[in-house]
Amino acid sequence: MSAAAHPTSKPAVNGAAPASSSKPQFRQQPYRHRRNHHRSRRNLCCCFCFWTIIIVLGLALLAAITGAALYVLYRPHRPQFTISSLRISKLNLTIAADSSASYLSSLFNLTLSSFNPNSHITFSYDPFTLSCLSHSVLLGNGSIPAFTSATNNQTVFRALISGARDLDADSVTSLRSDLKKKGGAPLTIEMDTKVNVKIGKVKSKKVGIRVTCEGIKGTPPKGKSPTVASVLDAACKILAPPRQRAKSCVASQYQILPTPNYSQFSTFGSASPPSKRISIA
Which of 247, 251, 276 is nearest to 262 (CA)? Predict the structure, then answer.
């Protein structure tokens, strides 16, 4: 028997041609380039940062070269301060018998020299405020007028440092211990001022400095003749002043006070206490 043939597709009912089984074809759209705004902004930012860094590094290099050239050309050095002599005319610590009150009076004669070792640099100083201390105890104050230190110039000053004030218990204990030392009480001279620097026609702004001179030892005079403090080991350093200075400390401590009864007082030093307490700035 011959196998029956089976048609692969059913004939159309209405006699029409059979439908095509292939998928419809779509026309491909042409490619359009789209700009990436985020990438463009990123590139611009990177470029800006790069050139900023280059400019900063260039300015830093230029400043370093300029500074090195100025240093080689002018050879700048710090000014030098020296304590030539310090005479103690009065240093009295008066304490009540019951230690309920204490009083300090002092008078110092200071000779100070300032030297400018530079050949092309000039220093202009405002008035100096002087302070004499023994450890943390303030003994007196003084001042030096404003001056200009020319090139390779030495300037010598003489100043009075004086004080009169009450002391608290801690200050009395510290000062009495220092005054009883055989080698003398350790003294420190502090000088505060402002200075500007002039190199040729260029002048800097004023900056605050503090000159601290240590290594001084002195003893109170026993009579009317002043004693000479030892300044062989004295050394002065130029430092930046502290941020907060007790400017009102001296004004509040150096005041006219009522006269106490000195008949009950014992005195360390030469001169007798004054009739009233008056500050000497």
Answer: 276
Spatial distance between the Cα atoms of 24 and 31, rounded to a whole number of angstroms: 22
d(CA 54, CA 61): 10
Q: Are 268 and 93 contacting, i.e. CB atoms less than 8 angstroms apart?
A: yes
| 3 state SS of 195 | strand
Q: Band of the pLDDT at 17, cuts 50, 70, 90?
A: low
pTM recorded for the entire structure: 0.64
Is residue 166 packed enough to be buried (19+ CB in 10 Å), middle (13-18) or exposed (0-12)? middle
Please give the Cα distance from 72 to 120 (Å, whole number). 12
| pLDDT bracket for residue 256 (50, 70, 90) | very low
Say how far apart CA 146 and CA 137 lie, in whole Å.
Answer: 27
220 burial (CB, 10 Å; 0-12 / 13-18 / 19+) is buried
Tell me: the pLDDT tens digits for 83-116?
Answer: 999 999 999 988 887 777 889 999 999 999 999 9
Tokens of 88: 């103690």
Contact 249, 242 (CB under 8 A): no
Residue 158 has pLDDT above 60, yes or no: yes
Comparing C-alpha atoms, which of 260, 251, 243 is closest to residue 279? Answer: 251
